[in-house]
Amino acid sequence: MTAPILIWLRRDLRLADHPALAAAAAEGPVVLAFCLDEQGGRPFGGASRWWLHQSLAQLGGVTLALGRSEQEIPRLALACGARAVYWNQSADPVLRTVEDRVQAALTVPCRIFPGDTLFAPGSVRSKSGGQFQVFTAFWRAALALPPPARPLPAPAALHVAPCPGLELNALGLMPKLEWWRSMASAWRPGEAGATTLLGAFLDGPVQAYHRQRDRPDHDATSRLSPHLAFGEISPRQIWHAAQAVPPDDGVRTFLKELGWREFSRHLLANHPTLPQVPLRREFAAFPWRDDPAALRQWQMGRTGYPIVDAGMRQLWATGWMHNRVRMVVASFLIKDLLIPWQAGEEWFWDTLVDADSASNAASWQWVAGSGADAAPFFRIFNPVTQGEKFDPDGSYVRNWVPELAHLSTAVIHQPWKLGRVPGYPPPMIDHAAARTRALAAFKGLRGAPEQPRFL
DNA sequence: TGAGTGTTAGT
DNA sequence: CTAACACTC
């Protein structure tokens, strides 16, 4: 009996489309290993831990070698007598340093395979060989490359060897409080759930995607993001499934969103500090405010702006927020409250079931105006206008902010017009004044224009 | 993948 | 009077 190969699953629970699983399966028995608690030193957020538990539990019948941190991979390999270790390379340079340490500590050979992108980080380059700074140029260049490879079929047989490890339930991934019940009713973690969602989406909604995707009150998006984040479905599967649908604006727009994911990963690969440090250096000098009480109001969905509060409560309840609303709440935190985007990035990391370092960091920097191809800082979302435009009859707000459910459509996005609504806070800040303040703060960045000089 | 404001051509 | 546009932040 040959010794098994240990496959480090990292975050890709199913190793969807990755050659590591296929290669190892062809070579004999395998041990599947998964490490919890850390992603390159950053603990999983609470929502992600819940998702992980559900997903791992569904690998029913498959025994996993479970470790607490990635540093334990060499120990697990030793414990199960593996003759080799395979894994998928990450796009995140911080995780790559973890990989380097793991590799250095291994006493058996290892093979590292490409990560989970359509276009490997670094493969989409401008004519001068550099990182694209503009998304549309990036995506045009990507689409001109040879198309992404077809998804790999699942191994016909996977001989999983027994292994020592921790018991899933002993890992304490499930929270003590039962806040996950509302998440459980919104999602079906696991590969089957992902496949169902993709099929249902490509079967109809995708055709209206370009027109409907900005409507949080409609169920117009695929909701595949958490499945993608945990490798339960791969971008290559999505890409090739979408090729079977007649190409139209809906499909193109949908695939373009995968493009943003790719763009983010390219950016993170080139800028390891993307989650912490503004890409545009001048933002280091921005006059942010330290205001824990205001941050808390935003987190709890009690800002007094209905579209913002609806979004934050949808996030809290389901671990997900509609993309349009993400932009609105992010703009509110950054520009109205002048709270550092990193605080929002951290909250999203904790509460999103689709939390992903690259997409999360790149998107927050996009809103802040400090990223690549970012919204200019003076592009400030008006929460009332955005609400009226994208939730025109107020049903999204009514759904998530029950205190406002009885309001007429005319005032649903500006309830203060009625005076005080019982149970709902007044606006925590006057948007018009906040906008002026943000513009002034931004202007200061451009270096005080030279003082007038008198000759 | 903004919004406020002013201008103007078209009703 | 209004929609479309340009310009600015």
Task: Report on this structure.
Residues 3-118 form the Photolyase/cryptochrome alpha/beta domain. It holds the Pfam family DNA_photolyase. This is Deoxyribodipyrimidine photo-lyase. By secondary structure, this protein is mainly α. The chain has three domains: 5-115, 3-Layer(aba) Sandwich (Rossmann fold), CATH 3.40.50; 116-151 and 191-269, Serine Threonine Protein Phosphatase 5, Tetratricopeptide repeat (Alpha Horseshoe), CATH 1.25.40.80; 281-443, Orthogonal Bundle (DNA Cyclobutane Dipyrimidine Photolyase, subunit A, domain 3), CATH 1.10.579.10. 43% of the residues lie in helices and 5% in strands. The protein has helices at 19-27, 46-58, 73-79, 93-105, 135-144, 181-184, 191-202, 209-212, 225-229, 235-243, 249-270, 292-300, 306-318, 323-336, 341-351, 357-368, 383-390, 395-400, 431-445; strands at residues 5-8, 30-35, 64-67, 84-88, 110-113. Strands 3-2-1-4-5 form a five-stranded parallel sheet, with helices on both faces. Helix 1 (19-27) links the parallel strand 1 (5-8) and strand 2. Helix 11 (249-270) crosses helix 16 (357-368) and helix 13 packs across helix 14 (323-336). It is globular and about 75 Å long. The protein binds a DNA duplex (11 and 9 nucleotides) through helix 14 and helix 19.
